[in-house]
């Protein structure tokens, strides 16, 4: 059975471009131009993954509303937010909205497809019976690499796929500085410096929501970031 992807995007050119590329990869694609039509379809049948534009026609935050609807219907369905500018994403609390990843619309098709594949891989891992898992423990942080899950002091941290691989890059060598380029390479993405900064900020915020004393992700000005054990 081919996997079904719902694409909710109000720009016809972008929508058609992505529908063609996704179908070319063997996915079944249901495309929607606005929130009401997507919402009605989701109430009937859920896709295997949803790609949602944040601003939908007159609804500046229509994508958020859709995401919340999907989360009520399914906790595990992978959701990717599309945003025109990365600074929009800074205002999003991923924990509150429930998206699995955020991508800016200038991302290449190859990277979008890699992101989708990573999310399906994570879904499959979570659904699979527990096998031998690769665990990394650094102080209070526990990372299950094979299942792509993270916990801090025993509490789960809801990281996106992008954030997960960035964190993984930082903790492989605690105390060592990772440049932005290294973080990009290891998170399997091509983005600009400001996007890396946004991801790091969001990641910190998620840890701080669980523990207001959290201070383990350091910015090393002019060089990059590191994970510090105190």
Automatic annotation (TrEMBL):
Protein keywords: DNA-binding, Phosphoprotein, Transcription, Transcription regulation, Two-component regulatory system
Family annotation (Gene3D superfamilies): 3.40.50.2300, 6.10.250.690, Winged helix-like DNA-binding domain superfamily/Winged helix DNA-binding domain
DNA-binding region (UniProt annotation): 133-229
Stored Pfam families: Response_reg, Trans_reg_C
Entry keyword annotation includes DNA-binding: yes
Organism superkingdom: Bacteria
Protein name in the entry: Proteobacterial dedicated sortase system response regulator
């Amino acid at each position: 059975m081919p996997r079904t992807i719902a694409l909710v995007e109000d720009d016809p050119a972008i929508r058609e471009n992505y529908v063609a590329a996704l179908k070319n990869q063997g996915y079944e694609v249901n495309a929607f131009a606005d929130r009401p039509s997507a919402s009605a379809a989701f109430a009937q049948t859920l896709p295997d993954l949803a790609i949602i534009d944040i601003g939908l026609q007159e609804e500046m935050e229509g994508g958020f509303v859709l995401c919340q609807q999907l989360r009520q219907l399914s906790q595990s369905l992978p959701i990717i937010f599309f945003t025109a500018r990365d600074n929009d994403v800074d205002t999003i609390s991923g924990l509150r909205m429930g998206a699995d990843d955020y991508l800016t619309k200038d991302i290449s098709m190859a990277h979008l497809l890699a992101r989708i594949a990573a999310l399906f891989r994570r879904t499959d891992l979570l659904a699979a019976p527990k096998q031998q898992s690769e665990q990394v423990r650094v102080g209070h942080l526990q990372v299950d690499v094979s299942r792509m899950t993270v916990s801090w002091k025993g509490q789960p941290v809801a990281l996106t796929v992008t954030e997960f691989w960035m964190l993984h890059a930082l903790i492989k060598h605690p105390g060592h500085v990772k440049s932005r380029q290294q973080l990009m390479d290891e998170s399997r993405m091509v983005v600009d410096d400001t996007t890396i900064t946004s991801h790091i900020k969001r990641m910190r915020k998620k840890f701080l929501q669980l523990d207001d004393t959290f201070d383990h992700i350091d910015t090393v000005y002019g060089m990059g970031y590191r994970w510090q054990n105190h």
